[in-house]
Amino acid sequence: MTVVLTEKNGAAQRSALPSDPPPPSRRRTGRERAYDDVPRWQIYLPLGLYLLFTLIPFYWMLLFAVRPAGSTSLVPWPMTGEHFSKVWNERSFAVFFQNSMIVGIATLIATTLVALAGGYALARFTFKIKGAFMLALLCSQFIPGALMLVPLFEIFRNLQMINSLWSVVIAETVFQLPLSIILISGFIKNVPVTLEEAAWVDGCSRFTAFRAVVLPLLRPGLIAVGSFAFVHSWNHFLFALMFLSEQDKQTIPVGLNTLIGADSVDLGALAAGGVIAAVPVVIVFAFIQKWLVTGFSAGAVKG
Length: 303
What we know:
Blueprint: E1 2-8, E2 11-17, H1 40-66, H2 82-90, H3 93-124, H4 130-140, H5 149-158, H6 165-189, H7 193-201, H8 206-214, H9 219-235, H10 238-243, H11 252-258, H12 267-299
Antiparallel strand pairs: 1-2
């Protein structure tokens, strides 16, 4: 209400003038209830059931890994480390772990560097076959790796790279590059080009401007791409199985396959090997979770 003063018969009188009427109130429907109005059990119960469904296989694997041989207890007590000692020393898992780490780190570095160069070119330059190149990158994601085993094997055989870890690194890098380049390209497009132009005006070269201005802003994207490449190469079974035949060159996924016999399976050793294979991946995701989500979401904004 707006209040004004008027003079009438020598006395001040107050008169009220109506202002803009308030917007009509509208009752909220069930879909418009606030988050705080939702009972907590409706949120925690589905999440708890999903978490239970997800963690039961991991608990089962850990149970077999630390439970003594022949025990049927559902509680891992007393615990034993005999299965871990067996697979680490007798089944050469120490060598498998080292080979997997070499392949994973080399694939991470190679994929990140090449994707960074390719993504920058797609984000900052215009050329005639740019659209066709992007289409080729997208279409390559629909090609299964199994279809490329024979030509890749022939190429590596002619290059005398069979039974070399570098053959697996190259194959993993090639199959990781299309998605990595697309993600890095989208992330670079989110960085204003005016930042680089300002560095050019100050006398920086294109490479110096990229290294000093753009590269620090790409940390979430680089972490996302590198971690995805590492985890995929760590878990991939097919390339290591085809290109590595000597036992001292095999990786952990192939090593796990050797624990499965024709007539029997040592469940304790197999579970211990699975725990050893899962620990590095769990550690990686535990430390880079926030960077991973930020990197993939930002890289998918523009393509």
